[in-house]
């Protein structure tokens, strides 16, 4: 394998996404050679613009390849000469689609396409971005502390969304592939809770749209009876890179979550206190009971990978600041 100074090559799938553009940024800042896939090369300029805003001036270590999770085309080119693959791309719709297969099929088949191509090209390790959706969406939350041993049960739970199903099914299929057909390819999985933190270049995601923008523009006028566990996008990238490089990460899942949990009421109160200048449209919400607060352990990533996530207030304030100063 090439040594770190002379450019280890990493493929990032889904470079147009909120997590994708932050991942490319950190990899370039750390001296990696980066390839990224986009569904359409027409979006290349928006990524370059976002990276320029963050101080990247030399793009000689970044290349773009068109590839869709629903097609075999170009995946062999995308993984060619890569040491590692960070597979982030997956549909994350704000609304539950009428046909759940619109989300499930690209998530599952896309992950399998990326794994097969990576195995055939001799990639060392794939880090798959799954979600806490694949961990803790079907159990009674009361008094349970969720860990990487938990799985969302898509067979017997009726009220889970297409997205939650897609992430669970895709991750299970990936582990099965590695076990049966991996032929030495390593897999590590990251299971983030809601990802917040700064949007760069106006590239947002459903988490920011629902968890911050809907509050700021006043669309959210009641407190949903669930809470949000929060992690900063910059820390999720850091965890992907740690998981990509650490010898003990192979074959493991890692929950990406900062400490604690917030209801939408808590988020509104934080914004009103810390950023009153941005809260003129915010609706007044009611608090909800502590029984809705989901407890999640982030010990595994902290212990094995020495991961040290920032606190959720900092992430949420970075979100509001980036959205309000770059509307
Ligand atoms: P995002 O901004 O919506 O990014 C999703 C990415 O997937 C985009 O680049 C999108 O490309 C790509 N994609 C979707 N369908 C595709 C297809 N058929 N072929 C190729 N690419 C496709 O969301 P994100 O928050 O950055 O999500 C990145 C990853 O993190 C996803 O796997 C998501 O499930 C996971 N995750 C996110 C959160 C969160 O709170 N944000 C939490 C846990 C896990 P286009 O630009 O072309 O649509």
UniProtKB/TrEMBL annotation:
The keyword Oxidoreductase applies. Residues 10-252 form the NAD-dependent epimerase/dehydratase domain. One of its GO terms (molecular function) is oxidoreductase activity, acting on the CH-OH group of donors, NAD or NADP as acceptor. Keywords: Isomerase, Oxidoreductase. Its EC number is 5.1.3.2. Transmembrane segments: none annotated. It is an enzyme of class 5 (isomerase). It holds the Pfam family Epimerase. Belongs to the NAD(P)-dependent epimerase/dehydratase family. Dihydroflavonol-4-reductase subfamily. This is UDP-glucose 4-epimerase.
């Amino acid at each position: 394998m090439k040594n770190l100074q002379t450019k280890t090559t990493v493929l990032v799938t889904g470079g147009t996404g909120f997590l994708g553009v932050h991942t490319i940024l950190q990899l370039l800042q750390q001296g990696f050679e980066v390839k990224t896939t986009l569904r359409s090369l027409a979006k290349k300029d928006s990524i370059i613009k976002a990276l320029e805003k963050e101080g990247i001036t030399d793009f000689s270590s970044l290349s773009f390849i068109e590839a869709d999770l629903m097609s075999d085309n170009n995946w062999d080119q995308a993984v060619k000469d890569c040491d590692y693959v960070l597979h982030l791309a997956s549909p994350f719709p704000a609304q539950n689609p009428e046909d759940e297969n619109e989300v499930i099929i690209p998530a599952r088949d896309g992950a399998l396409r990326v794994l097969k191509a990576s195995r055939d090209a001799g990639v060392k390790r794939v880090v798959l971005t799954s979600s806490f959706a694949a961990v803790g969406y079907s159990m009674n939350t009361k008094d349970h502390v969720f860990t990487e041993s938990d799985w969302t049960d898509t067979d017997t739970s009726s009220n889970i969304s297409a997205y939650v199903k897609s992430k669970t099914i895709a991750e299970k299929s990936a582990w099965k592939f590695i076990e049966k057909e991996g032929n030495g390819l390593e897999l590590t999985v990251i299971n983030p809770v809601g990802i917040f933190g700064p949007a760069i270049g106006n590239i947002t995601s459903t988490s920011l749209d629902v968890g911050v923008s809907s509050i700021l523009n006043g669309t959210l006028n009641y407190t949903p009876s669930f809470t949000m566990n929060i992690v900063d996008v910059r820390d999720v990238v850091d965890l992907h890179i740690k998981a990509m490089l650490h010898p003990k990460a192979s074959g493991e899942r890692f929950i990406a979550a900062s400490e604690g949990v917030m209801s939408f009421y808590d988020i509104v109160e934080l914004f009103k206190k810390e950023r009153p200048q941005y809260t003129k449209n915010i609706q007044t919400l009611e608090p909800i009971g502590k029984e809705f607060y989901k407890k999640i352990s982030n010990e595994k990533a902290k212990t094995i990978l020495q991961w040290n996530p920032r606190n959720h207030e900092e992430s949420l304030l970075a979100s509001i600041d980036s959205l309000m100063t770059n509307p």
